[in-house]
User: Fold these one by one.
Assistant:
Number 1:
Amino acid sequence: MSRYGSENLPYGVFSRPRGERRLGVRLGSSVVDLSVLGGQLAAPSLNALLAAGPAGWAAARAAVTELAAGSPERIPLSEVTLHLPFEVADYTDFYSSEHHARNVSAILRPGEAGLPPHWKHLPIGYHGRSSTVVVSGTPIRRPHGQLGEGVFGPSRRLDVEAEVGFVVGVPGRRLRTTDFAGHVFGITLVNDWSARDIQAWEYRPLGPFLAKSFATSVSPWVVPLSALVGSSSPLQDPQPLDYLLPAGPGFDLRLSVEWNDTRVSAPPFASMYWTAAQQLAHLTSNGASVRTGDLFASGTVSGPARDEVGSFLELTRNGAEPVKLADGSVRGFLEDGDKVTISGTAIGAAGVEIGLGEVTGTVVP
Amino acid sequence: MSRYGSENLPYGVFSRPRGERRLGVRLGSSVVDLSVLGGQLAAPSLNALLAAGPAGWAAARAAVTELAAGSPERIPLSEVTLHLPFEVADYTDFYSSEHHARNVSAILRPGEAGLPPHWKHLPIGYHGRSSTVVVSGTPIRRPHGQLGEGVFGPSRRLDVEAEVGFVVGVPGRRLRTTDFAGHVFGITLVNDWSARDIQAWEYRPLGPFLAKSFATSVSPWVVPLSALVGSSSPLQDPQPLDYLLPAGPGFDLRLSVEWNDTRVSAPPFASMYWTAAQQLAHLTSNGASVRTGDLFASGTVSGPARDEVGSFLELTRNGAEPVKLADGSVRGFLEDGDKVTISGTAIGAAGVEIGLGEVTGTVVP
């Protein structure tokens, strides 16, 4: 059974050879052109629909569902090019998996292992680069950079981070966690490519910069929140401050990371400590505004088990314990030609399993 | 003599009551409407001109200079509203004053005083928030945030950072320092408002986030590089890696910081360690792209003397040594109602002193 049936209908932007960009929804292994529906759905990117707000989103979903339930023209995915589904305004990335944060501290900062003192008091985050958010399938050129004192060259410790991105529709500031569903349109899978050697040398005291700014890949599909069902919030101890309460929903999304043809990890999103609603409330708590097209990502999703981690830094213990792929080769970090695919599934609002799209990229020299 | 004569002619965006936004240049204490010149100069923001590249910039400057030399209609500044002069794509902020970096280390991290080990090997930077870049004069609402464990409220250590911003015109990636003049259109003064208490609690390990994302003010005027003259590069020891050479020009800009009606500091831009050309080369060295409308700021400009620092953190030693203002009041950090104005001058390409505009803001509760 397809995970892209009428219960899912994620939005994307496609074009046919020599054709213009159009909005579409995925139905099975085909795309249904939404331009026939007019209005915001006849635009060349999702931004107009994003700005329409919850009533507009519901109306669009009703129209799209009705269209899909008829006998619409289905354009095979193999015949289209998929594009970045929306114009990214500000891109923010969080660090909200406790397992990931503990693993990173233990691996990279053994002298200060454990969580930073504020980690359980606020969702730590930073701003990333919007200009280099690219759609799944875009080749990832191995970044150059300073790998240590006096050494400039291609990164030798190129890594991935499997994340879930949240796409902001309605602008706002000083949002409460309860404003989440009124402002966030949907989710998209994210690979926050990271050069660990560049990062280690550059990141104090202002955080990661060139280690992550060369490319961030996103799925071509944005799954609307209305296709998903929230799960119980994570247990949080100590209790967060009032502006981060109520925590808002968790989401029981199951990710999968494939390294070339080998599935190496299955990160469980339900294991995240901070919720997306809390990230949004924190992000705007100082008075900062979010805009239509803002993308904020969860941070690397890592569960408690070794085969549930969202980065190769954790999977291979910084390269010290390489993994064996199906073809018998071993890997510490990414080699040129390697392909990484992050995909995901969830039990959707209709009670059936739905696909969250996939984000893939191949490393080129 | 005006610092805004025909040798300067900085660009901005203005509107008259109930009128649309138009490009203009400042001439004395008036604005000259550029829409009569048509083309990119008839647009409602600078972005089209920015994208035109060096030949377009030169043609525009010739046309604007000719217009100003005639008897154009002069609209008094008092009759117009000035707007953000361009749409900001990615905003990046550097940390390139050695005096500032040493002062901050000594004040905030006395246990690790001195420069971080990589400081003289690369221009440290981070990404900021584009959505909250605002034009001079926009009131600055005191940010709320976590000031420490269990404490959420208005920042008690609200500060400024006097900086120089560089406005990117022509997109590119992997730029050399020698590409600087082909890609950067001009400069604008920047106040990177900073909440030191929020920053101290949040910034490890991913850098400052909410401490700076609530507002970044820029001058309404962008001075084209062609109005400026480069000065000798700063002395750099150790010699930077090849991708950061040649260093590119320094700029002998003199900033001024006024706290209410008292001039408290005169930061000398010539004292910066890393050049803007090196910042641009570093920013794109990993393959990251810059776009039309990108803004990258120098980092706080601090000279060696106490009355040359670009932040109040440094001026008052983190509030421990308050300054006395002209009205007899004393200040550690910003109080509600305080107004800060950063202005600047340079000896321009024509050999006469020119004004760099000003960026001002008043703190509101």
Number 2:
Amino acid sequence: MTHPGDVGPQTGRNLDPWYTSYADRTAGLAASEVRALFAVASRPEVVSLAGGMPFVKALPEELIHSAFTTMMREHGSEALQYGGGQGIPEVREQILQVMSLEGINDASADDVVTTTGSQHALDLVSKLFLNPGDVVLAEAPSYVGALGTFKSYQADVAHVAIDDDGLIPEALEETIAHLRVEGRTIKFLYTVANYNNPAGVTMSLERRIRVLEICRREHILILEDNPYGLLYFDKPGLPALRSMDAENVIYLGSFSKILSPGLRVGWALAPHAIREKLILAVEASILSPSTFNQWVVTEYLRQSDWQQQIEGYRAVYRERRDAMDQALNEHLPQLSWTKPDGGFFVWVRLTEQLDSKQMLPRAVKELVAYTPGTAFFADGRGRHEMRLSFCYPTPERIKLGVRRLANVINGELDLVETFGTSTRRGPDEDRVNMPPPNIS
Amino acid sequence: MTHPGDVGPQTGRNLDPWYTSYADRTAGLAASEVRALFAVASRPEVVSLAGGMPFVKALPEELIHSAFTTMMREHGSEALQYGGGQGIPEVREQILQVMSLEGINDASADDVVTTTGSQHALDLVSKLFLNPGDVVLAEAPSYVGALGTFKSYQADVAHVAIDDDGLIPEALEETIAHLRVEGRTIKFLYTVANYNNPAGVTMSLERRIRVLEICRREHILILEDNPYGLLYFDKPGLPALRSMDAENVIYLGSFSKILSPGLRVGWALAPHAIREKLILAVEASILSPSTFNQWVVTEYLRQSDWQQQIEGYRAVYRERRDAMDQALNEHLPQLSWTKPDGGFFVWVRLTEQLDSKQMLPRAVKELVAYTPGTAFFADGRGRHEMRLSFCYPTPERIKLGVRRLANVINGELDLVETFGTSTRRGPDEDRVNMPPPNIS
């Protein structure tokens, strides 16, 4: 695919004098789609339905001011100093309160490790467990940032089918059996059981129990990533997998969606022996997470009615979810999509003639961005699907974005009807940044 | 060494149901000495000469207040949001100013990547380059946190001899030649050329030029870790290695020692192709560094006379270095030690009869802590050396600490003289946490 004149990877290699020095794992490091997002989404004329940025303007800034002021007055020199690798005890105690809202009531602050956002915990758990060639089980589709991290440790992802009730237990059993026959080593099941990113679906209670049973029986650890659990819309969320099994689940939580991602405070709750190793991994990675930010979070939780604040977020995102659902009904009734009970994302199934990756440059030209489904599969699937996020734009912008998207899609479908193909390539396409994006 | 009744690693393994699931690299993960430090040093009655914590009380808190207030007023919703994986452009521009004080004048903000402290950059560079069995060259002794990170990627460290002028070029050449004969793959030279942690020595200008020549000739990348460069006491520091070679040096810098470690803002300046990969590695690790903290740093640098503030730190640490040097002269004239021109640490050479690791529990009992030399070698050396840090305790506490240390050392030497051995083991020793520690 590379032509002599291209300024592509091949040329880049030749220009990099250290090309032969990199570790084997670095060969798999592909240009991230996260950066492209920021480039696209930051242009104000584009309606971005691509990112996963929370609407932080819904957070009254005086709450942060107040938390900061108290922190500096009462813990200033501690907040400016190094801390322990596990995180400060005060925030770990409060994290127990947050997790109790997800049904986790048997945890100890000793088993919580705070990290630089929950992505960091995801990375360190991967570092602790994954040898090259190991297999991680994950929903089909699954969070793009997790797929990238697993790849960075040279692990393979085996996707497990989902439906509107989340991961399908029978598919999980079949996938495990198949991999075992092949002699593969399965290290853990990675799941976003609540308001899945990108699919928007939630694993039912019955299935949670089944999935836990299967993994216990097969001695497969579960890595439960739950950034959206408290952002439910229609009814309170289901109990976390971790609430039903303390021994076989590593639980990841985050303040990014219920407070602020700019603070980068997340956490892992892990069985004792794993937690010990996780602390060592944090120390090797960053010495200690930011005490400054942990204290801001601590004082915020102490001073504000944070549960009421989360209720406010729910109202904001519920309205946006509804705006997106209505706009899709109005402008793209011929397609199907999920209607999530919480979280940030709607998963849209296109018709077989449409290719979300190929269509993206045209969409950006029409001033709307989305994330092609291919970003959420490790195996090239997802061309006929896309993720739309409703978290950041206002309801009006969401409607505008969906209207623009409908123009693009309907234009494509007209072409298919007329010429039997949607492969309309223009010189512009090569100049538009390919596929955006997602951030968390 | 493990007895049946021990509550040791062997028992721990049996209790951990996931013991067989860990990655190969996790086997080398040893209980970190950093945590033990915090346990020891936090007891107020102990004079800790063990840690590497900067004296953050020397930073006027109103400067942080002012930076925070402006940040929230002018960039609030940006500071609370996700950022790009490379870090915000504003802080990267200012980092150029900081680096220009180290002689680096040809850098571009495009080639700077901000990280969660420079330890994070160290970790990610290691992840990019190190395969299991690769070799990293490092000073003998070398920063304990770097040794831990290299080990976490299953690399081996080959120590290169130093003297009062830092790394010895001839020793570097010999080590390289020896390793090449053995067929080993050398990935980079890790060096703390300014006010070495732990040795306190500085690589001379002549040697910097020689080391750069040797590494260029041998096609060995240099990883220059420079957290202390601006904290000089007697005369301005020497130009960074990076200032003389933009192609073969990755430079690591940090705000931990010139502002606050609690913010966890560090950076890497890397050749173009490496920088591109480093950004991808940041994204896989944490999505993006904290925008909140980057903005605090940005506004601090914009608003305050930060160079004058650094001059203030120099005065604080110079006084403490002098206090330690004088106390050693007074109480332990029979030993030899380095007198650093900057930084945080003095390296003490004990007599052959003394074992710093074995002596530590007795020192802690006498209410003084230090870091045994063994922490700074990957090969078990350092038993007859110790690191004393003068950064955190006041001059009075430093004098008290050295006096206590002299009591312990002289007590040991008396024993040696009387009985011909210092191996005085009591039941207490097993109960005292073994060897502390260092943080950065």
